[in-house]
Amino acid sequence: MSQRKALITGITGQDGSYLLELLLAKGYQVHGVVRRVALEDPEHRMSRILPHLNEVQLHSASLESYPSLHNVLARVQPDECYHLGAQSFVSYSFDDEFSTFNANINGTHYLLAALKEVAPRCRFYFAGTSEMFGLADEVPQNERTRFHPRSSYGISKVCGFDLTRNYREAYGIHASSGVLFNHESPRRGFEFVTRKITSGIARILAGQATELRLGNLEARRDWGHAREYVEAMWLMLQQPEPNDYVIATGESHSVREFVEVAFDHVGLDWNAYVRESPELYRPAEVNSLLGDASRARATLGWRPKTTFEQLVGEMLEADCRALGVAAPGISSAHHR
Ligand code: NAP
Ligand code: GDD
Fold first, then answer.
1. In 145, 148, 244, 256, which residue has its Cα 20 to 30 A from 74's Cα atom?
2. Residues of the chain with pLDDT under 70
3. pTM of whole model > 0.90?
4. Residue 332 pLDDT
5. Mutate to test the pocket of ligand 2, among 84, 145, 182 (most ligand atoms within 8 A of CB)
6. Which atom of ligand 2 lies nearest, measured to the CA of 86?
7. Is 125 considered catalytic here?
């Protein structure tokens, strides 16, 4: 059997980097779409995939340009395409709805339209999200739960989800959407709350900060480990028929609980450091998310393994180690 080829958009992000490693381990020839500027400054812009730069073929293209995506697909002729590239920060989508829509809606549309033209047998994965449920009217949320997005990010992802389903139904593309709940890791961007907390604690321990300013501490999320969630993406594209799958742990915690567990882990009292700042509240908040991944368990055989406490500990240890700080709960083992 010839070597399978995969194309990943968003390969420089948290999920892209784990997916790259998974596909390399499975013997794929991996191609990645990156922004042109990334190729000029790999040290900073490709930090998550630096160890694998000689094992992956990178192509510069823009999610805002149909011809650039068409060219890459025509040249690579992938067997599988994982579309992870997106403006993924919900907060920022309130500041700039336009660039969020351009990247997330047009980018998905251009990619699907090009796929239909030049690689119609390529299997397609769309990075859907629990943000599509938003103000959910049932708990837990599954594949049949109604969408009620609360941000332009959420709206853009509902549109990408609908586009993906429509290309499946109208043109027979093997196109699947993962409806992934929050997933984190030591590679999470610093702007997301989990990494903001663990890196903030490391800075406090290193004497570089004296407080941690956060927004809404009562928001609840279903947090899993990114390394496990990319396995679900791959499993979806191995199924004979395309479909949509919720991927979640089935356990939810508040931001406050994340803070408590994290500060506890290093023996600090969080009350002495955390300040709740109303200016960090969102204009429309998604208060609570909890996923039901029964379909993924039954059809894909997928289930989460990392516990909430293990996830917090792994992220904290990595951030403390990066700053060279020691603390009661921090071991010397290396996680990445
Ligand atoms: P991430 O770390 O923010 O990575 C986003 C990727 O998209 C990066 O490679 C980034 O490239 C690229 N990108 C952003 N804007 C772009 C643009 N205008 N043109 C081209 N590329 C652009 O996100 P992630 O956590 O890995 O998430 C991967 C995907 O899953 C995203 O679509 C996200 O919306 C979705 N998702 C994430 C979660 C989660 O909890 N992590 C849950 C559900 C769904 P640069 O490095 O060049 O910026
Ligand atoms: N970022 C951030 N910063 N969030 C904070 C803060 C803070 O200082 N304080 C409280 N929060 C709350 C937010 O209001 C939100 O309710 C929750 O923490 C989680 O925020 P984020 O970590 O930014 O993640 P998100 O849930 O908005 O979005 C992430 O998960 C989605 C899946 O549900 C992103 O990865 C999205 O791309 C993804 O689709």
1. 244
2. 331-336
3. yes
4. 52
5. 182
6. 37
7. no
